Amino acid sequence: MQKLLTWNILILAIVGLAILSSAGLIDAQKKFGSSYYYLNHQLIYLGLGLAAMFLMSKIDYKIWKKLSLLILFGSLVLMIMVFVPSFGLDLKGASRWINLVGFTFQPSEFLKLGLVIYLAAWFSGRDQRLENWSYGMAPFFLVLSFIAILLALQPDIGTLIVVSMISLGVYFLAGVSLKQFFGIILVLLIAIGGLIFIEPYRFNRIKAYLDPAGDPRGISYQVNQSMIAIGSGGLTGVGFGKSSQKYGLLPEVANDSIFAVAVEEIGLVGGVAIILLFLFLGFNMTQIAKNISDKFGILLVMGINIWIMSQAFINIAAISGLAPLTGIPLPFVSYGGTALISLLAGLGIVINVAKKA
């Protein structure tokens, strides 16, 4: 199972690099003066990520249980630092990045891994007290609420949705009652719904999803262009490197729209193959979780599984017109150093758990 998982990860990483090398070609030339800017930087990030994965695979995963509170605290400190003028970096009206001595990174990506570790540690030590409000629900709800406030202030509703799904998934797998579980879901839906409706651009994304033809040159532009790209690909695609939508027609071709460019070039067959690679990754991690008896290990593996699967399929659904656009990147494929490094570090932990299975 460990070898299958490792090969699955490497294949996804290679496929992601290949897709990015084509999808980001024109955008990179336009923004940075080099067609291979995205590819060259992503190669560096992949190297760092694989090094992190190798290191994490060698460290006994049980040590993270002891360090879980410290890891979460460090993640939250970094999240707060984005609002400090001397550290935070505003891009496109959002405060999501930190600039330290020339290095720019997104703390919310590290938060996802930190939160998984913390929740797995927290719930694995409270088997008999989850039904108790003081020991089970209240601390979980307070931590999630604080994280939600930080993400709403950035603002980063896409990450908030992923974090919520991670939290709900781990909470459910920990063995809580359905009453508590659905109570948390209701509160989260009300909170996220409120955040959507108080900001016009978020509400407009919902409208664009419900009526893509309503404003084709405005808020519906990205989803319409992505649908054109997907439709143009047909069954087998127009050919690798031959996308027309990446020539300034489709926004965010190297980020959340990258799946549309991939399907345009390699067709429905290629798109389904990418989806199957993600499903196989999720299946591998689920099998690893089934083969271990340690509750912390189970919650840790499944938390990372939920993180990757929810992010992948929210991105694919949104860019295919099956869900509102969220700005969530596609794991392994979209451009982004912090996301790739934290993702591979998390998978390194899963590999270590697999060794103990």
UniProtKB/TrEMBL annotation:
InterPro entries tied to this protein: Cell_cycle_FtsW-rel_CS, FtsW, FtsW/RodA
GO biological process: cell division; cell wall organization; peptidoglycan biosynthetic process; regulation of cell shape
Residue stretches spanning the membrane: 38-55, 67-88, 100-121, 133-151, 157-174, 181-198, 258-284, 296-320, 332-354
Alphabetic keyword roster: Cell cycle, Cell division, Cell membrane, Cell shape, Cell wall biogenesis/degradation, Glycosyltransferase, Membrane, Peptidoglycan synthesis, Transferase, Transmembrane, Transmembrane helix
Source organism, top-level taxon: Bacteria
The protein's Enzyme Commission number: 2.4.99.28
Membrane topology: Multi-pass membrane protein
Gene Ontology MF terms: lipid-linked peptidoglycan transporter activity; peptidoglycan glycosyltransferase activity
Pathway(s) this gene product operates in, as recorded in its UniProt entry: Cell wall biogenesis; peptidoglycan biosynthesis
Predominant localisation class: membrane
Subcellular location(s) of the protein: Cell membrane
Catalyzed reaction equations: [GlcNAc-(1->4)-Mur2Ac(oyl-L-Ala-gamma-D-Glu-L-Lys-D-Ala-D-Ala)](n)-di-trans,octa-cis-undecaprenyl diphosphate + beta-D-GlcNAc-(1->4)-Mur2Ac(oyl-L-Ala-gamma-D-Glu-L-Lys-D-Ala-D-Ala)-di-trans,octa-cis-undecaprenyl diphosphate = [GlcNAc-(1->4)-Mur2Ac(oyl-L-Ala-gamma-D-Glu-L-Lys-D-Ala-D-Ala)](n+1)-di-trans,octa-cis-undecaprenyl diphosphate + di-trans,octa-cis-undecaprenyl diphosphate + H(+)
GO cellular component annotations of the record: cell division site; plasma membrane
Family (UniProt): Belongs to the SEDS family. FtsW subfamily.
NCBIfam families the record matches: ftsW
PANTHER family according to UniProt: CELL CYCLE PROTEIN, PEPTIDOGLYCAN GLYCOSYLTRANSFERASE FTSW-RELATED
Name of this chain's protein: Probable peptidoglycan glycosyltransferase FtsW
Origin species: Candidatus Yanofskybacteria bacterium RIFCSPHIGHO2_02_FULL_41_11
Native organism taxonomy: Bacteria, Candidatus Yanofskyibacteriota
